[in-house]
Amino acid sequence: MTSVPGLQLQDIPLPAFALGNALDIILVNAALIQLSGYREKELLGMAVHRLLPDYPGRKASGKQDSGVKAPHGAPVPANGSDRDGSCLLAFQGKDGEPQEIEIRSHQADSLVFVFLCPPAAQGATVCGDNFLSRDGEQAYWEWQTDTEEIYYSSRFMALLGYENRAFTGPTSFWQKHMDKADVTVFDRHLAQASSGKRTRVNFSLKVTDRHGQEKWVNIQAKVQQNQHNRVCRLVGMMKDVSKSHFLLGQGKAQSRYLNQVEHLSVCGHWRFNPQDGKFFWSSGVFKVFGLQPSSYRPDIEETANFFLPSQRGVLKKNILAAMDKGKGFYFKACIKHPSGQKVKIEALGEVERDHRGRVAAIFGLFRDISRTEEVFEKLKLLAMVNYTIKVPIFFIDDNDNVVYQDLSPQGDNEKSTLFNYINFSITDYLALKKTTKSQGQIKRNHISFDKFNSVFDLCVTYEAEEGIYIWIVENVTDNFRKEQQQIISNRLALLGNTFGNVSHDINNVLGVALGAIEMLELKYAQGERDISGYIERVKNAIDKGKSVTERLLAFTRKPPVKVVEFDPVAEIRENRYLFKQLLPGSIELVFDFAPVHCLIHFPQGEFINILLNIVLNAQDAIKETGGKGRIELSVVLNREKQLEVHVKDSGIGIAPENISRIFDPFFSSKSVNKGNGIGLANVYSTMYKHNGQIQVEGSCELGGAHFTLIFNCQLEEDNPPQYPALLPGLNIRDKNVLILDDEVSISEFIALYLESEGAFTTYANNKEALLAHLASGQDYDIFITDMILPDLSGREAVNLVKAKFPEIKIYSISGYITHEDGKWQYPVLRKPFNSKELADFLMR
Questions:
Q1: Could you list the residue range(s) of the whole structural domain that residue 394 is in?
Q2: How high is the mean pLDDT of the chain?
Q3: Might you give the EC number(s) for this enzyme (predicted)?
Q4: Which long-range contacts (CB under 8 A, 24 or more apart) does 300-309 make?
């Protein structure tokens, strides 16, 4: 191949030649030889018009063209021209068949170089370079590094959405079609090529055409150097690879998703090739088998060696059967990691068929099911326990889906869900679920959601690793009602034991009051006017009688069954009088409270009942020694931050042989007619059901028995919050007060006292009088009502008054409040009361 200074045609990847002054061909390259069909010797010296009949400069009508205009105004150089240009001309090879071709010409010194771009139909291939392929001409570009302009072929322009015509312009022309980040990458590649650091360029990026459509293109270029080994030009192409880039990205995403699925589900896919008898393993399979991912391809025997000896033939057997019968398979087995760890897996296989329907390969999955199998075994074990103890069990996951349930002991097909079995609301369900997740397990005994029509013992456990809640529920309504009857009977027994003491105190109160009133009458008849001392005696006697009846009512009232959180120390403090009231004066009762502030989860009504049982047993034990003695009741926290309530006495103690029987039903070591043996049995039963503990020692430092009650508790702040004291004085001056009470004397007393404080009062003693006052047109600021009246209740009275005066302030008074009235939202003052108690009450 002939060369000229500054240019080597053999390096040009397009058909090219050089012309002399007579427009004859003096240099050619291999691509032109292939395109034209001529040999090199035939081309050298040939007139250009043999190949390009319409090439500028050919004589016509006796004239020689000085040049013709090419697209975009770039002239096609004629002889002697120093300008470059391009145009479409007819090309005629040795076969004589003309074809349209794009030419590009360039003048250097005294030579004109011509480059040919065959059309797509030509299907030419250029000397090992891929700028022209059998798919036709690609988008061609050329950049001479000593200028800022690049030649863009017509196919290049069409790719960017322009007219199908060649164009010469600056590098910024195609940079405006790229993202800013890609421009930086593009410039770096071109800079490395133009500086000679690399001989070829090949990279892909995203461009946006003239119409705003995004495309992925591949850019390739070859570096050409001059005689001084300096880069003089880059010749390259740009190819639309959007489709293949999309498929590649989609394949990568699918592969990434598949790897994610395999990681999350601890599984992997495999493919068995019958031709070579080997497996392909994904990275997930390597993980299942306890190996690091590699290109290792095991055969059937090598894969089977991972299975336990008794199961090594199962894989081969299933694969051979699948190939023979063309059907998939599924089995479970156990494999052994190289580390020695045993893992349970499940295997799934499906056949792949060729175009003729024959089995071409087996594709399948291996999945680690060790944890799933453990959960399943646990469920089966719990189901067996369920069947044994006849208690329903529900397994519910974090998403509230029932994983497993067993209601077989009930035999009721309609009760197929937890909500059908327990009549609680979704709010109750979510609250129990939240508490269980934070604590791990909760137990609730005698829990009810419908005012005790149905009562349940409930245990909920959260298995964090599996994300499963295990609900164990038992309907104990019948047993609960029997126990309530037993509790009432026990209380009546306790009441019988203490009735003598209580009646003695009440008689004393009545005696003091009666004596003081008679003395008051006698002195008044004798003309003595200083009777304030006798009035004070009557008031004191009434106060004592009030205290006795309050405690007696509290003791005989039906105990609340619902388990609640309360302060046990405060509960004991509030009932100290009741403890002392039950004991004779010969027995000293001492309270010792450590600075403990905590809450326990327990039936509040049963807490004091338990202590009363123990204290009364201590009383009987002291009486056995002569009747005088001491009982100590103390409260402390132990090392495990549990609340301990200790009851010690100076009685006869408990013999060692009776310690193990002390809580047995109907067992009693007392004298005949002194005990029925059910008190301590009920104490033990109640403590056990509500996760408490009870311990007993036969002797202590006082000489008698020592009982210890232990409760799990939630500690509060060491210093309870201090609330500001109420401001002194009753501020009801100029307020209108309406009073309702069927006892005229109580209504008059309240009205007289309030008027002395500056209020305006009106009172009624029945419903008719109340309605008359409401219809009178008088406005009222405060309404004070009795809770129980002959012709209406306090609740009904409040509703009548609130309908007339929605903003009125409500107070209530009562001689007896049942447990069910605990939902009453207004403050209650218990009868009887004095003026000071009334004033304190109204200052709330």
A1: 373-475
A2: 76
A3: 2.7.13.3
A4: 300/272, 303/279, 306/335, 306/336, 307/333, 307/334, 307/335, 307/336, 308/333, 308/334, 308/335, 308/336, 308/342
